[in-house]
Amino acid sequence: MAGAKKVCRHLHLPVQSGSSRILKLMNRHYTKEDYLALVARIRAAIPDVALTTDIIVGFPGETEEDFMETMDLVARVRYHSAYTFLYSPREGTPAATMEGQVNEKVAKERYDRLIGKIRDISQQLAKEDTGKVVEVLVEEVNMQRADFVTGRLANNLLVHFPGERGLVGRYVKVKLLECMGFYYIGSPVI
Description:
Blueprint: E1 10-12, H1 20-25, H2 32-45, E2 50-57, H3 64-77, E3 81-86, H4 104-127, E4 133-141, E5 148-152, E6 158-162, E7 171-179, E8 183-188
Parallel strand pairs: 1-2, 2-3, 6-8
Antiparallel strand pairs: 4-5, 4-7, 5-6, 7-8
Helix pairs in contact: 3-4
């Protein structure tokens, strides 16, 4: 992947939790340390890789200390974005009957803190590219503005910029004008 020109420089590495104790309860076969070692190997091979993940907040038995392990992992990995979920019991699963079900209010407060941390990091990372001219693969006509198209950078971030349907499927040089958090507004460079 590091040397491939036609491969997106993005990896989705689901982690679920930053607490090795909770990972074991989830029946995951890796620890926080294993995960961080994998991230280090990936970044050594592909320094500009964008990483995304999945995280569950409020799994049965999660303590504040366990949650802070997740916050620590997020701060260390610096994800470009994350799919975050509040745990909800599913009938028939071992977790649904586990002791230590986390209070809904506590889980929601933790979830909000996690979302804020991920959003801050994502915005910091995205702002680093503001003002740069980059190559964008145009995917579609923008759903909100018919005079715009939407494409992706090599790191999988979205860019919306003025253009027409004929650009779909093509690479276009775009100047990244403004970071909007999880996406950019850009201008085609002619």
